[in-house]
Amino acid sequence: MAATGSAHQAAHPYHLVEPSPWPIVGAISGLLLTGGAVMWMHGHAFGPWTTLLGALLTAVTMVGWWRDVLKEGRSGYHTEVVSRGLRLGMALFITSEVFFFFAFFWAFFWGALVPPETFAVSWPPEGVEPVPTWEIPFLNTLILLTSGATVTWAHHAIKHNDNRTAFKALVLTVALGLTFTAFQGYEYYHSIVAEGFDLTDGIFGSAFYMATGFHGLHVQIGTVFLIVCAWRAWKGDFTPQQHVGFEAAAWYWHFVDVVWLFLFTWVYWWGGSLHFTVTPVE
Q: What is the 3-state secondary structure (H, E, C) of 256-275?
């Protein structure tokens, strides 16, 4: 099979992927993960175990599939044409993520600017104290902005063929990402346990936790992405001409930074300082 792939590579710049088990394994993993989660929510006895199996198979799929992609890159299959395609794919993926978060912002602004008039509504809900903007949220803003600078530092080092400096910058970026996650976890714990502010507190609570929670998940995914890049930099994998994997991670991390700036400005600051009460129309 390798010889066939080499022959195709010599004939044109495109990469004809060898047969792979990961698409079907990934599809089955996704079915088990989502189906198990639904079963779990409905109290089915096998729900937790199905969800766990789906999560494990999904992790195996990601590790195996991306390992194969790295091998393809090292084997010379990622020509300039293929690299452009990979960059375009990442750009389109990030675009889809923009619309994903747009839905949460739409819900938040709808609740804040066009509250229903058929029943009494208060913003924030009665008895709920919004998260103080200039405490952990502001600290996390500084952390993410700093991490954006360090990942750019790593990119600059790679362009100058300095994997050692890139490794140091990426380790620092990963540490900042983990710190952000730890602070957000403390913020959630304090808000939910100490203040009693949770998902059930109207549009304010549900939109707040959906938007900030999914952003937190993206930070965790991005952190794993950067850990892999740090490992590759330590091994000297990146060259000034070939570092598409790092570019994808850096783009994703900058996207996470920008989304957080919108969350900090509109959800924490503006949304937390807005107060009103709507009485139902008779």
A: HHHHHHHHHHHHHHHHHHCC
Expressed as residue numbers, the domain containing 48 is 1-77
Does residue 141 belong to any structural domain of this protein?
Answer: yes
Residue numbers in the chain where pLDDT is lower than 70: 1-11, 118-120, 281-282
Per-residue model confidence (pLDDT) at position 182: 98
Count of domains forming the chain: 2
Task: Look up residue 73 and give its amino acid.
Answer: G
The pLDDT assigned to 155 comes to: 97
Q: CA 272, CA 178: separation in Å to the nearest integer?
A: 25
Q: Measured between alpha carbons, how far is 102 from 176 in angstroms, rounded to an integer?
A: 26
pLDDT of residue 3: 45
